[in-house]
Amino acid sequence: MSSVQILHNPRCSKSRQTLQLLQDNGIEPHITEYLKHPLTEAEIKTIFEKLGCNSVLDMMRPKEAEFAQAGLDKQTITTEEGLQAIARYPKLLERPIVIKDNQARIGRPPEAVMELF
User: 36-49 pLDDT, tens per residue?
Assistant: First the structure.
């Protein structure tokens, strides 16, 4: 049996909906509240790879104030800059993210994570 993890923000409605969807389907994921327990840059890079993103922006929330505070620009951001910024400002991580084995999906919409099962 593989383990399932959700990077969760309980204040986010999509995150709560995604967690509920998993539980409604008999899946009890390991819950990581990434704002309380920030991820390392190495962990974020692994998730980036599991998501198969074309750009680090695909896993970021560029509208958050922290994006500008980090001195980032959507036109010129590099993967390395994005990973470093998420490690420094966990709020920049798009949420929720469900990880299963060597794959991950962003729960926007929540049903997208069911591709993993």
Answer: 999 999 999 999 99
CA distances from 48 to 17, 21, 26, 56, 94 (A): 22, 23, 26, 7, 11
CATH fold of 4-116 reads Glutaredoxin (3.40.30)
Which of 4, 5, 12, 46 does the annotation list as catalytic?
12
pTM: 0.95
Quick one: which of 36, 35, 4 has its CA closest to 22? 4
Residue 54: CB partners within 8 Å, gap ≥ 6? none
Any catalytic annotation for residue 53? no
* Cβ count within 10 A of residue 35: 16
pLDDT tens by residue, 73-83: 999 999 999 99
Sheet architecture: strand order including 30-32: 30-32, 4-7, 97-100, 103-106
